[in-house]
Amino acid sequence: MFNARDKCAIAGVGFTDYSRDSGRPVRSLASEACLKAIQDAGLSVEDVDGFVSYNFNDSVPAIAVATELGVPAAGFAVDFLAGGNAANLIVLNAIAAIEAGLAKTVVCYRAMNGRSGFRLGGGREMAAHGITQFTAPFGWITYPQAMAMWCRRHMIEYGTSAEQLGGIAVTLRENAVLNERAMQRAPLTLDDYMNSRMIVDPFRLLDICLESDGACAVVVTSAERARDMKQKPVYVSGGAYGGGPQQGEDLFDAIRWPDHAHNYSKYIAADLWASAGIGPEDVDIAQIYDCFTYSIVMQLEGFGFCKEGEGGAFTEGRRIARDGALPVNTHGGLLSEAYIHGFNHVIEAVEQLRGQSGPRQVEGAEVALTTAGAMTCGSAMVLHN
Amino acid sequence: MGYNKPLPYPNSETKPFWDACRDGILRIQRCSDCGTNRFPPTGVCPACQSDRSEWIEASGRGRVFSWIVVRHPVPKDVYADKVPYVVAIIALDEGVRMVSNLVDIDVDSVQADMPVTVRFDKVTDELTLPVFVPADGADRGS
């Protein structure tokens, strides 16, 4: 279990514009976000000795960013070959490195031309090697198709409805309307959702996240050092990474997973809360990985905000709205702000806890949950100011 | 016109499965030590870690565990002529799951747990795909 409660903090954040076509190499996006995060912390490149990122062969390695920025000694430069499940893991990895003495101040980032370059949602190769030979030949190819299969199980077991999923999309859009960096800011109604095109039943277009070009970065350092830096530290009090049995041979494959109505979150929740020393009832805001509307349903249950099977009902009655009991994805999420593979959730949590979220600020937010991943493995953190 | 959809590339572990499909036989692995059935094919039994296994003939019967109806084709040029189509996870009677297509059915009438049976569709000289159809007596919809 994560045993570094409050020993490290996020001391800086940086991000680029989010767009459909950046017109720039991914390395340039990564470097811009990382440099902004370093400067936000009041540091210079000489103060940084680590870079950690994750990618799907669609980004640039940590050493490329360190090289472009002229970092004199990037000792801990590490890349995870991973999906959104790693969006919190890289911060936990930076903390592990700092605690072990492998680095002092680490920049974590995700950078991608996810719309103009390699599109994660676009499908897989026609040559079905490995585990893919048992999925792709049947036209089961894209992540929306994969997750729709999970969602159906929840509908079968618990009666989760299209109206509940639509309510999530509508609520998150309300937040994006207030967010100047969100890619989708036009108000949305439940009718808009119900009338949006059925892509892969049970998912409509508006169940599916955006595709984005952009980059996000944060600076992680010891709490002691963070207290002397420019910004108010945001402490990492808890964290967990993992999943359950039979996770499959890649992120897509979940043929042997026990039950697709439940994801990784139910398997790591106990460790997450124990490591932070709090429970879900203590959380003020939650930035929950929302590659699809349905991903939020499973995680609300898995992390214990409601009972198993009640995730759909939990989202009703504006409970997850900005003025509700548990504001979720206060930036609009991957569904309406941007898809920086889940790392933009960490940015939003930090800004909220610093009180820097402008018109969408949740007053008095002190404790935030961030989560990453939707399927068989994932990561999560508890942050506080 | 050639077959333009994704083709499986069998390896030493999976070739017996695809070879059997060409002969109209649905095969799964069984651990030679503890008897646990498994699919997709692997080298080691996840129940007892034995590396000894054999191929058995499955009944070809199962039930719909979950399903989707693909309406938006991806890649567009490959699946435009196929939508709407059903992809299902089938829970075989032998206790393993398999991904396949559910065919010969109205795409809007699929039900959870409906009984299905395998059918073999030859798509190229080399490849025969195991697809599933509603079992005799099951409601085939309109």
From TrEMBL, chain A:
Thiolase C-terminal domain location: 272-382
Molecular functions per Gene Ontology: acetyl-CoA C-acyltransferase activity
Listed InterPro entries: Thiolase (IPR002155), Thiolase-like (IPR016039), Thiolase_C_2 (IPR055140)
Listed CDD domains: SCP-x_thiolase
Identification of the protein by name: Lipid-transfer protein
Naturally occurring in which organism (per UniProt): Oceanibacterium hippocampi
Species classification: Bacteria, Pseudomonadati, Pseudomonadota, Alphaproteobacteria, Sneathiellales
UniProtKB/TrEMBL annotation, chain B:
Taxonomic lineage: Bacteria, Pseudomonadati, Pseudomonadota, Alphaproteobacteria, Sneathiellales
Organism superkingdom: Bacteria
The name this protein goes by in its record: DUF35 domain-containing protein
Positions of the ChsH2 C-terminal OB-fold domain: 55-121
Pfam families (alphabetical): OB_ChsH2_C (PF01796), zf-ChsH2 (PF12172)
Residue ranges occupied by any ChsH2 rubredoxin-like zinc ribbon domain in the UniProt entry: 18-51
Matching InterPro entries: ChsH2_C (IPR002878), ChsH2_Znr (IPR022002), NA-bd_OB-fold (IPR012340), Thioester_dehydratase-like (IPR052513)
